[in-house]
Amino acid sequence: MPATANDPRTSRTRSWWGWGYADAHPDDAECAALGALLPGTLTRPLPIPRIADLPIGRPAATPPPALAHLVTTDPPTRAAHAMGKAYRDVIRALRGRSGRIPDLVAHPTSDQEVADLLEWAGEHDVAVIPFGGGTSVVGGVEYRGDAHRAVLSLDLTAMDRVLEIDATSRSARIQAGTLGPLLEDQLRPHGLTLRHFPQSFEFSTLGGWLATRAGGHYATVHTHIDDFVQSLRVVTPAGVGTSWRLPASGAGPSPDRLFLGSEGTLGVITEAWMRLRERPRHKASAAVALPDFHRALEAVRAIAQSDLAPANCRLLDPGEALLSGASQDGSSVLILGFESSTSPVDHRLAAALDIARAHGGHPEPPTTDRDAPADTAVGAWRSAFLRMPYLRDGLARMGAVVETFETAATWDRIPALIDAVRSEVATAALKATGHPATVNCRFTHVYPDGAAPYFTVAVAGRPGAEVEIWDEIKAAASDVLHRHRATITHHHAVGRDHRPGYDGQRPEPFALALRAAKNALDPHHVLNPGVLID
Amino acid sequence: MPATANDPRTSRTRSWWGWGYADAHPDDAECAALGALLPGTLTRPLPIPRIADLPIGRPAATPPPALAHLVTTDPPTRAAHAMGKAYRDVIRALRGRSGRIPDLVAHPTSDQEVADLLEWAGEHDVAVIPFGGGTSVVGGVEYRGDAHRAVLSLDLTAMDRVLEIDATSRSARIQAGTLGPLLEDQLRPHGLTLRHFPQSFEFSTLGGWLATRAGGHYATVHTHIDDFVQSLRVVTPAGVGTSWRLPASGAGPSPDRLFLGSEGTLGVITEAWMRLRERPRHKASAAVALPDFHRALEAVRAIAQSDLAPANCRLLDPGEALLSGASQDGSSVLILGFESSTSPVDHRLAAALDIARAHGGHPEPPTTDRDAPADTAVGAWRSAFLRMPYLRDGLARMGAVVETFETAATWDRIPALIDAVRSEVATAALKATGHPATVNCRFTHVYPDGAAPYFTVAVAGRPGAEVEIWDEIKAAASDVLHRHRATITHHHAVGRDHRPGYDGQRPEPFALALRAAKNALDPHHVLNPGVLID
């Protein structure tokens, strides 16, 4: 298996074509066992693709001598920076249909080097794709088209230090290229934590989280990374800027909020002061089986509209609960978790369980351990959660079409939205493949005024047509979201894949303002072309 | 007394030159009594100014017949729209130095009428000053200079309805011109509340709160109106846009966050879907006397860094506590309040009081009444809070220079910042007046990573030179904030008065982006010229 990126922290090898660590991928036998669960898939897994088979040509641009030491052109590095980690990326790699391989990969170590690279790229018509951990699932780190002379993947992971800690204000200045585990490693000795744990935590960076407005650990209140930002440092082709470290401000529109979610189109976030927490001392979690899904929705709404503020509040629909092992009897399962660094949380869990009971729920006994035993619903869900992307890739090797998408909508729309997504996406999948599809739903984050449903689709593909099938299903999904006025993404960004949905959702005056900002900050239009705006 | 604006809800008359209701102003005897508290002030109050003495000329522009019915040119209405309600505005009115009187005041009743007025203004070089309740304290609703042919004050208060309520998602679609009390009146029958209660609540509008990122009722967590916005509708010269109603989204930079805080420079917010709450059923509050101010700061930081989330957490320094009647013995006083619509809050108050005790605090007995008795510190503080702007105007009539300013900074900077502001502002005031100044401090909002100190300055002026004196003091205050990297405003906006501080604080790439957005949305540069950007 071609090894392309060693993880210096773990000494494990990261996969260039699939999720995570290469040694964690299901082997051929496991793939076959997974495929057997989905009628119509292949009988043998697709072979693991080889870098040697990729169409990697000579780089179409050469950096100047002063920048040459930052730039790599070896095929494994270029291959590992060609695409993100969506199902669409994995199946393209498996089918020998990779996206355009970047000409160059740069690993700058300072703001000045980032600025120098941007300047050179602007002068030489080289597209620049900012790259953190490369876990985009929306085509956010891939060049499409041929409007530029060459493509440079700007990998920030050499900028991976916590530079400063202010324990009094519980905050830290952190370089954008810091991967999740390395970030927490550097905070742990200080008793502090960012507690931003997306599913991609091991393989994604602070800068990526900020540029994409990633959703994190907390199911309620401060759900997005945005809320933990005290200050941003951004290098743009038009200059460098750092916002002041402030707990809050009312001085004009928030400068940080323009760059949060800008996905590398306006500038490169190189560092941020982030708000931290003390590590939690009190924890309690429990799972509740809820026989009726629509009553389960009401239970979750009631909890979201209380002031109990659970850290975890994941509702799994019956299919999702079955798949993760949290329930076998057709119930929905609600996973509740509370945590605090200052006060016991048992009474908050008890109050939430009372609400769930009032909606027909049957709680499991609460667990207070960090690692809930695997034979509890909480434990089963947690291990399935971390394993899921690997299983997706195993199913992809069996020719399955397996992907997730997520959204958010106000409570008044939620029941009809979920019903419509389930039915229309299943219909589209059946039409595209001739096979029955599974469409499951869970909630990742909830709010007093709405929820963020997260859907999983799985269906056997037609050999060689998996990309087109997924594109059809995704178009149907985007269409139903649009008709229900549900956002094209709650926390996975827009990238290139969500452009039609995003363009239809974004208010036109904001589109005008964003284009104008882009022209002002990136006058040569080299920053992540095709993402968010043209 | 010239009556210019009748409040239809209360049948009371609002003052055109001073704060609030004309009948709530201190009379001459009360003014004299107030002046006696501040050595060096006048012996008799300045007379109340008369509209007849204002230099109100013929309007320099005439709207087309189709818009004529929306436009008023009578002197009282024009006078009442000439300035905001800062000390600087009041003393200018008292000294016959009013800002430029607008030529026209329009009261549109629909988005289309707003759009038509903007179109006409753009074509005829008429500056448009969006106007809600007119309580700006930063020169936000006043035209300065003479770059435009005429000035139109765009008063939104005819758009004052709650248009739609979604009880399931606890949210409402509300017109931007709705004044605070009218807004709550329309929500009350539904058991819902926005609970945004700035000091200006009676006299300011939803649209004004949104355009200026107003600070509200909650001392912690969701402190600004920004966090309660689900969707905005904005009319710009380049078109109308409405963001989708969403509980959260990760689709690109937040469109709403660009218009929140844009202070009428990018467009006119005409309505918003706002997140509401059920009215609180559980309340508890208490005051704590803290003999040592620096230990009091530590107590507040500990509470802010807990997860107790008080709704009120106001620290009054000894001077402020004395002034409001909350303490007479030189102690600082911490006012704590908790509220919830779902759960009892007594244990949260008890936990916060434990923290305060550990820092040397002596709690008063807790009160659970909404209206704490006036003889408690909580009650004394609350009545002083609402009366304060009226007393400021009374002191202004005695020739005093009395004003507030506020900021926010991270905890590591807070002690040195407060000491520096007290000392440097008092020095500047003494230098400018020859009189000793009072400089008090309180906290209005607190965060895990910092606090928002709010300062009050009072000093006797030199007759006729009060404006220049205040400008000197304000420049000194802005300078010390800048050197300590404390924001020029936490919740009072930038307007025209804060421009130097804001320009020095705003990161340059964001300034470029904001200017570009302005050019795209307001190509004729008629929207609130001079605010935020040139």
What does this structure look like?
The first copy, chain A, is α+β, with helices and mostly antiparallel strands and 534 residues long. Among the domains of chain A are: 162-278, Uridine Diphospho-n-acetylenolpyruvylglucosamine Reductase, domain 3 (2-Layer Sandwich); 282-483, 3-Layer(aba) Sandwich (Vanillyl-alcohol Oxidase, Chain A, domain 3). Helices cover 32% and strands 21% of the residues of chain A. The first copy, chain A, contains 16 helices and 21 strands. The first copy, chain A, has helices at residues 28-36, 65-68, 75-80, 87-94, 111-123, 180-187, 206-212, 255-259, 293-304, 318-324, 346-358, 377-397, 414-433, 466-483, 499-505, 508-521, and strands spanning 5-7, 12-14, 71-72, 104-106, 126-131, 150-155, 162-166, 171-175, 192-193, 229-236, 239-242, 268-275, 277-278, 282-290, 312-316, 332-340, 362-363, 400-406, 409-410, 438-447, 450-460. In chain A, strands 7-8-12-10-11 form a 5-stranded antiparallel β-sheet. In chain A, a hairpin with a 4-residue loop joins strand 1 (5-7) and strand 2 (12-14). In chain A, helix 4 packs parallel to helix 12 (377-397), helix 9 runs antiparallel to helix 11 and helix 14 (466-483) packs parallel to helix 15 (499-505). The two termini of chain A are 38 Å apart. The relative contact order of chain A is 0.13. At the A-B interface, strand 10, strand 11, helix 8, strand 13 and strand 19 of A face strand 10, strand 11, helix 8, strand 13 and strand 19 of B.
